[in-house]
Amino acid sequence: MKRAAQVVFATVWWLTFALVCAVMFVGATVCFMVTVPFDKRRVIQHLYSCFWAQIMFYLNPFWRLRITGRSKLPWRGKAVLVSNHESLGDILVLFGLYRPYKWVSKAAVFRSPFLGWNMHYNGYVPLRRGDKASIVEMSKRCHAWLDMDMPILMFPEGTRSPDAEVKAFKDGAFRLAVEANCPLYPIVLVGTSDTLPKHGLMVKIAAKCHVQVMDPVDPQQFKGDVAAFRDHVRELIIAEKARILAAR
């Protein structure tokens, strides 16, 4: 009986998601055409996308989202944001920050209908993992956005954790912050693994998600040591995640 209920819920969820994406993409296209001539940073487009993503939480009374520390994030200015990565649901909850930033995401996602097309509208940054030319281009585009006082958001694990444990971090986000000499904001996600699975389509009925924005870390204190910077931030995220889980 429980399995049948979950199958029904997942089916309804994905059908709703597809309908929402189709409808909201029409609005995204209108938003892009109207705002791109004067909104070079595409802030309005991004905030529209935030609302689009949050609809799946607004429609589902069994998915709860708590965000703390949002006010720490800048509306304008150079900054790098990094978060642990538990599931596809991370994208939905991080849009709930309702703050300007540019995603760095795998290039394949940009080819998906509606969502990928809207990512192009937003000027998000594609990346093909393991492709040196793509990595160089990604870094160039990230620096261009930072020079326009637009923060960058990256998942330093590179891919979703299969067991919700924080995996090893890659250097990219931390090297970017060092090169741009800008603050890096660690963001902790808890409970998002209870939304969308790493593999498969079986969406879970209930989820209790928490997003915690931590205080910014100044890369200058590490004197160019990217590895030390990276490991320090990872330990901060692990410790804060354990604290949140213990308090539940």
From TrEMBL:
GO terms for molecular function: 1-acylglycerol-3-phosphate O-acyltransferase activity. InterPro entries: Plipid/glycerol_acylTrfase (IPR002123). Keywords: Acyltransferase, Membrane, Transferase, Transmembrane, Transmembrane helix. Pathway: Lipid metabolism. Pfam families: Acyltransferase (PF01553). CDD domains: LPLAT_AGPAT-like. The chain crosses the membrane at residues 12-38, 44-63. Residues 79-192 form the Phospholipid/glycerol acyltransferase domain. The keyword Acyltransferase applies. One of its GO terms (biological process) is phosphatidic acid biosynthetic process. This is 1-acyl-sn-glycerol-3-phosphate acyltransferase. It comes from Enhygromyxa salina. The lineage of its organism: Bacteria, Pseudomonadati, Myxococcota, Polyangia, Nannocystales.
